[in-house]
Design a protein that fits this description.
Radius of gyration: 23 Å
Shape: elongated
Helix content: 40-55%
CATH class of the largest domain: Alpha Beta
Strand order of the largest sheet: 5-4-3-8-7-6
CATH architecture of the largest domain: 2-Layer Sandwich
Mean pLDDT: 89
Strand content: 15-25%
Structural class: alpha+beta
Low-confidence stretches: 252-258
CATH superfamily of the largest domain: GAF domain
Distance between the termini: 54 Å
Largest sheet: 6 strands, antiparallel
């Protein structure tokens, strides 16, 4: 089997493992001795990790795990809680609609599918966890972009070179409409001949952290179905938001910045 590991990364992880097991910190000499690495290499690893906040050093020269790990832990905890909260509503949605169900979050400049339920029908949208899509194209991505804080949304759109002024204005008008109505109905964007109906999911402070959608071939999405699916996806997103601690009656809980 080929070995694709990166040696310096392996060594860095080893140093972090040592720090994890020593709540009172470790000196450079102790880390060098325990890791079996040369002192200069341990110093360079620590310098790099400290630069990025993964390691901290006190006045006595002892090294500890840095506060950045708390940020990572918070993100992992949020996503784990989200997946647990979304499981029952997603199961009910696929039972009620027999269409594919998607749950997505923002990942960099993309929307990332973190959970899905595949339609039991022979003709369906393939539910692929891990799929990425540009923010603004498709039901879940459009909702995530619409409810993104204004300064973040503006900065992201400024980077999209393909958007001419007219196209950008049309997109911003559409995003404003999505915020006002609280859901998106998207046709023929990510997948030709497909409908996607999506709604935002909020955490306890009211910030939108995810979106959920019902998606399938457009020929099955009659006006009657679309109206029904809008209510179903709004109900599911509300259930998940409540499970995450969101109170719809709380002040300032609009989930985005104007």
């Amino acid at each position: 089997m080929p070995d694709y590991t990166v040696a310096v990364l392996e060594d860095s992880l080893g140093v972090l493992e040592l720090l994890k097991d020593h709540d009172d910190g470790m000196t450079l000499a102790e880390l060098t001795r325990s890791s079996g690495l040369v002192k200069n290499k341990v110093f360079r690893i620590l310098f790099t990790l400290e630069k990025h906040g993964f390691v901290e050093r006190d006045e006595a020269g002892r090294f500890y795990l840095g506060i950045r790990f708390l940020e990572f832990a918070q993100h992992v905890q949020t996503q784990t809680t989200l997946l647990e909260a979304a499981r029952p509503p997603m199961d009910r949605l696929v039972e009620d609609t027999s269409e594919s169900i998607f749950l997505g979050v923002i990942s960099g400049i993309d929307a990332l599918c973190v959970a899905a339920r595949e339609s039991p029908r022979s003709v369906r949208l393939f539910a692929e966890v891990g799929r990425r899509a540009p923010l603004g194209y498709g039901g879940v991505p459009k909702v995530l972009l619409a409810f993104m804080p204004e300064h973040e949304r503006t900065a992201l759109l400024d980077k999209v070179e393909a958007l001419d002024p007219a196209a950008r204005q049309a997109l911003e008008t559409r995003l404003c409409q999505i915020r006002e109505q609280g859901f998106a109905v998207v046709v023929d964007e990510l997948d030709p001949g497909a409908h996607s109906i999506a709604a935002p999911i909020r955490e306890h402070r009211g910030h939108v952290i995810a979106a959920i959608s019902i998606a399938g071939p457009s020929h099955r999405f009659s006006e009657e179905c679309v109206a029904r699916y809008i209510q179903l996806v709004l109900h599911a997103s509300s259930q998940i938001s409540q499970a995450l601690g969101y109170n719809a009656l709380q002040p300032g809980g609009n989930g985005y910045s104007k």
